[in-house]
Amino acid sequence: MNPNKSLSRRRLLTLGGGVAAGLTLAACGTGPASNGGGETSSSGGDGGSSGGGGTLELWGNTSIIGEADSPLAQAAAAFGEEFGVTVNLQGIPTQDLVPKLTTTAAGGSGPDIAIVDVSSIAQLAAGQVLADISSQSGEVAGDFPTELLAGASYDGKQYGLPYTTNNVALYYNKAMLDSAGIAVPTTWDELRDAAIELTGGEQYGYMFGAQGQGAFLFWPWLWQNGGQIVNDDMTAAFASDAGIEAFEFYAGMAMTDKVAPPEFIASNASWDQYVAPFAQERVAMMAIGPWGTFPVQDANPDLDFGIAPLPSRKESASVLGGAAVGVGHHAQNAEMAWEFVRWMTGSEQMHYIQDTGNVPGRTEVVESDWAKEDPLRQVFIEQIPVSRARPAIPTWGDVEWGVMANMWDSVIQGQAAPADALLAAVDEANNALSS
Amino acid sequence: MTTHVTDARLVAARRRRILRRRFEPVLYIAPAFIVLAAIIAFPVLSAIGTSFLDASLLRPGQDTFTGVDNYVELLADPTFRSAFGRTFVWAGSALVVQVGLALVIATTLNKKLFARGVVRTTLIIPWVVPTVLVALIWRFLLDPVSGPINDLLRPILADPPIWLADTRWALPMLVLISAWKWTPFSAVIILAGLQQIPRELYEAAMMDGANAWRRFTSVTVPAIRTSLALVTLTTISGAINNFNGIWMFTRGGPNGATEILTTYAYRTAFVQFDFGKASAISVMIFLMMLVLAVLYFYAIEGRSPKKRSVR
Asked: Which domains does chain A have, with CATH numbers?
């Protein structure tokens, strides 16, 4: 054997090629099982609470969990002090939270407590991620608005208690509206006229989102025009005459009136992208929930903006959002976990949620002084009665961020007429709804 | 008689020694091999198994065997077919752009160049930049409103493209961005190959009257054939598996314009939670990679020694 040959670079590279091929095979084999995106953990609750009564694992998205000294971390420490347990908080990026919860549950484990978006409750209930707490929740049910309780239930059973609640309202740039002599619009036609009037040069009237953002923001329009997302038998109902009329109006503002900045078609993932034009004073109005306030103030502290109820047509409507807190299906310490859920959503603990700027999902909040002290916050609280939950079906995520998102994208990419796209989405939506 | 016995013993002992010598390396390799095989084989076998099930995480514990239903459904699925085709376009353009650029860069760096070391080190930087940072950098550069690229274009074009949200531009831009990250790696491998070529070969070729192009095709290319094959394989397989290079920019959008098999598999698994179908897609990807790997070993390992001796 020629030692030169065995050591040659060519030989080495060939071996390297084999290794590379092996690695790619390995990477491909494990592809579907691996979870995209790492987890960032912030362990806040284990600071002052070193109880001997065991530990509770709490998972939520990174913005809900917050920093190590966040209000939730303080609440967790206070709970730990009172009940002699340690509450560990784990923050997971928003788009990874549901996949991570679902895959962990499929593996037979998971957190004791989870704080999740209300639109994913049905999915997490069907996927056996959250536990049915109907037998315990009855005693506190009277403290929460019915619509919010319904938003945290699936198939007639309760899977969580309302933690925070929000909905979508109209943000407007005061200076732009004032200088154009335009009053805050309260109807569709006023909104459209104002948006057209405020569009000119580098300035635009109204903001739209792409993909799932555009689909999510369409629901209030559908309801305001008397439409429904689904029928009682859970088949698609959004392409009714009222639905098509609403969608043509909505899409028409974006595509025909061109009142939105052209880069709106790139706003496909983060709400920071969506609020950027408003914060940069390129757009006069946009529809978004209270989560839009901080990024706007952060990007442009001097911006003078107001928040008003969404303009309406046949009826007033907004889309219900927010978070619910539930007990994990595979909780190690289910009793203590329920204790935390009840304690955290209780009246005395409301200030922890209020400190984050969010609205607690309790009935008493609506009438409280806290609701009236901030005019921006008050709009969202006033809209609670007209806010509607999206259908509680396990495949909702795929309908909103899959079928409807692609449908909206085909319209804003100029590949389909609005009515055609909406009608074409019915079959796909029915497939997703029934699977 | 005694001598015969001794002889037999000696022969047996020698045979044992030879056997041991032959098997000793196997023993050294075995632990790593077994661990690697288990790590690779388990998920692959599990994915193959799941691909024959109707398995949804939204209906835990209710998996049913459905045979090849997932595959039949996939082959009839227009989204799968377009993602399948786009995977080849994506890998093919990555190959042309990355290997083409890498050849140019490597040939340039192989010459005597001012501050060659500095230039070489600088060029490799994109390769070591994590994909998350690549996404941040390029999303900033390509930002339709505040990005420097559109700032430069605005005097020339009234409405510069919204690069990553335009169905015509998104895929080409992603090809260029991933080339920005991966070309340095290819260039370094090719450069290593170039540096192994003895100068005498070029001198001899020049004596024979070969021009620059002839020297490149008849001396350089055959000499770096192994490097080129390796770069080709890693580029194609890397592109097929380059999920982050797409997901972090467009998530397969706009309107499916950048959907390849890996993003489709991810979407099926973690948006629809249809693990049966997602596994079937992964098995398809696996088969593609297998074909590639076999082709590679056939082309390089199987054939080259003979060719080399003929030459």
From this structure: 55-166+321-388 (3.40.190.10), 169-319+395-434 (3.40.190.10)
